[in-house]
Each structure stands twice: as C-alpha cells, then as structure tokens.
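ok so for the tutorial part 2 we go from a plain amino acid sequence to predicted structure tokens. step 1 is just haveing the sequence, like this:
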Amino acid sequence: MAPRRSSAPASNAANTAAEAADGAGAGGRAGDSRSADPLMVMSVDKAFRVLHAFDHTRPTMSLTQVAAAVGMDKSAAQRFTYTLERLGYLYKDPVTKRFELTIRTLDLAHHYLRSNALLERAMPYLMHLSKTTEETINLTVLDRTEIVFVSRFMSRHVLNTDVIVGTRMPAYCTAPGIAILSRLPAAEAAGLVDRMDLQAYTPHTTWRREDLLAKIAGAAVRGYATAFEEYYHGDLSVAAAIRGPGGVPLGAINIAVSRARFTPEEMEGRFAPLVVAAAGSVSQR
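step 2 — the prediction. this is what the tokens look like for a chain of 285 residues:
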C-alpha cells in the first residue's frame, strides 16, 4: 500500500467544490443573498433546510421527497440525510426507507426554554395569571412577521388543543402580535406589515393595511391589543407587550378565553388590566 500523504489543501478544495455543487443542486442562485455571503456556510444552511422540511404535513419522507422538498438533487439529499441520521436527528425506517425526525431535534428547543432570560423573568407572572384567572395564558415573541408561542398554560376551558409551544401564527391577526407591533416605531411596524401575507382567516380578521395600521396605533394608545375571532372562531384574546431597555418590545403576554363564556366587552374589561399589569411587572424586572 502506498504511503498516505497529507492532503489538507486538496480536502479543503474538495469540500468547497462539494458545497458549491450542493448549492447548485439546492437551487442556489448568484443573486441569493445567502450564497453571496462569504461567511455563510451553505452546508449548514442546507442541513437545517432538510430538518425544517419535516412538519405535520410531511412527517415522513423518502429520499426523493426530501430532495424535492428542499430543492436539491438526490445525491446531495442522500449525503445530508445520511449525515443527519448518523448525528441522531433523523431516523430511517429499515423497511420503508423513509426518514422522520427524532426526539433529539427537541434538544435545541429545550436549551432555549431553559436559558431564555425573558421566559425566566415572566414565568412567575404567567403562573400567577394562570392560577388566578383559570384561563389560558401565553407568552409569545415576534419572529419576523409571525408570533411564536414560547410558554403556554392551558385552561380547563380548552380552546385550541393544536396550539402548543413552538406554534407560529401571523402577527397581524393575533392580540400578542398587534401588542408587540404597537410598541415598535410606527415606520418599523408599517414596514413589517408590508412584508406580511395579509388575508382574512375569518369574517372578523382585520387584514387591510390601513385598518391594521389604525389598530396598531390604537393599541399603542391603550397599552394593550385585542383580537376577537380573528384567527380562530370562538377565540377572544387580549395581550400586552413586555418591553426591555429603551422600550423595545421583547414579547407579549396574552389571555385567551372562549366566546361561548364571555362577550368581547366582558373579556376586555375583565382581563385587559391583568395582562397590562403582568407585562408591566415583567418589563420592570
């Protein structure tokens, strides 16, 4: 056997070439801002795209389906799925050859929930609201144009069991989203609204741009926002934003109740002061 020679430069070149090939197979374009970023490791980007391709509509996929969902060729998809399987983030059924996420994908979420300063500060107030109102209490944060649920205390008068920690909703038709937007500079809030896919989810959805901006301005004056059956039928919600240094919104606390038990007026009058007080207390911490 011939002696093995050091080939680090060749390996680096090969890796670079492989990444470039993967980028082309994944629909990489010269105008793609991520591809043009010299610090962006495109292989990492594509690995996360593979993981994000799995959801409730695609809980399992074949290799061909993974390649199609992510927009890469089958050879690249095979490398990424194999690597993610070896790392423990994907499971491949030995019979069907279909892939699915593993429990290990929860690790990042667990670390976020255990280390997030906002959640740590808000938790005592969320628990207090849950015990005193016996209604559903949520903590949400804004991620681009959506809100994400990071903590949720369910009421025995359960409304939507499909909403769990990690659930995303459009910010413009939710009380927490409007509450957070109302604490942003008006121009910044308007810019976010312009990036949203505005549509009516129910007959009660406020979705036209001018109406939304007026609703955001009204919430800024009141100090809280409401959403009555704007995303889910029968759902009444009131929320107030948690603010950090300089008044920057960090998230929102909301209380959600059923329309079958409260009118919108009753709900707002009873619970708006509570979420405002709770969000104010967390902000002061």
